[in-house]
Amino acid sequence: MTPSLNPDLGEFVSTIYSRAFKPQKVQAKQLATELKLIEKDIGADLGVDPQILRDVQNFLLALSAVMLRKPQTTLHPPTIIVNRQAAVDISNPLAPHPISLALVRLQTESKRPEGVGYEAHVRGEAALAAALITSLRRCCPGEDIFVATPHRIQRQAVRAALGQAQLTDLVREMEDLALEQSPERHPLGTVTVDTIERLQGSEAGFVICLFSLPLQAVPDLPFLLERRRLNVAISRAKTLCILIASSVVLRPPVSVLAKDETAKGYTFLRAFEDRAWSSTITLDVDKF
C-alpha cells in the first residue's frame, strides 16, 4: 500500500528512502481550520507560561494562515519549495497549502553570569513543548501527539512541565467539548512523551521533536546529530512534525562534522530545515 503523505514530508523522506508517496488531498484544509480555533484561546489562562503560550499560538496560527493562503508575518518560508501540483489544484488560488514540516528555532537567554546551563535550557525547551501540546490538544483533541526526546532528562522535564493534574483537567475539558459538539462520543487522542528509541515503530498525527541544545553543550552534538535518531523522530509524524532546534544544532562547529555519521545527520537536518516553515522563539530560562 502506498503511504499517504503531504508532498513536503514525502519529498523529505525520499532524501533517504526511494519510494512512492500518494499525496494527501484534504489534510491541509482540515488542519488549517482546526489550528485557527486557537484564536479563541488568546488571553486565556491555560496553566502554562503566558508569554510562551502566546508565542506558540502565534506560531500555530501562522501555520494555519499559510495553509489557507492568508498573509502572516511570523513564519519564514522554506528555501526549497516542493512541487505540490499533485496534491492541490494549482489553478485554484484558494486551494490550501499542504504543510507537514515546521521548525522552531529556540533561543534561550539568562542574566546569570554563567549563562544558560544545560538543565535550565532543558526546562525552557520543556515549557515550550508543554505550550505546544496544550494548544494542539485544544484545537485538535482527536489527534495523537508524540513528544520525541533524545534524552531521558528531556522526557522527565516535559512530563513535569505538563503536570499530571493539569493534563487530567485538560483531558476532562476536551471530553466535555467533544460531547457538546457531537452526540456521539469521539475518542480523544493520546499524548505520549518518550525517548525516540521507545517511540520507534509507532506513529502520531503530531510529533514534536526536541533537538535543541545550549551553546556550551557542543560535546552532545554527535549524539543529537545521528541520522538514524533524527530519521526515527521525524518520520513518526502522519500530519505535522514540529522540530525544535537551536543555533548550535542548526549551525554546529565544523569540527563536530568531521565524523561521517555526524555529517550525514547534519545533512538530513539541513534537508528538513530547507523544507520547513520556521520561526524563532526566545525564552528567558531564569523563570524556570
From TrEMBL:
Pfam families documented for this protein: AAA_12
GO molecular function: 5'-3' DNA helicase activity; ATP binding; hydrolase activity
Keywords annotated in UniProt: ATP-binding, Helicase, Hydrolase, Nucleotide-binding
InterPro entries found in the cross-reference section: Coronavir_polyprotein_1ab, DNA2/NAM7-like_C, P-loop_NTPase
Domain DNA2/NAM7 helicase-like C-terminal, first and last residues per copy: 118-246
Protein name: DNA2/NAM7 helicase-like C-terminal domain-containing protein
Species of the source: Mycena pura
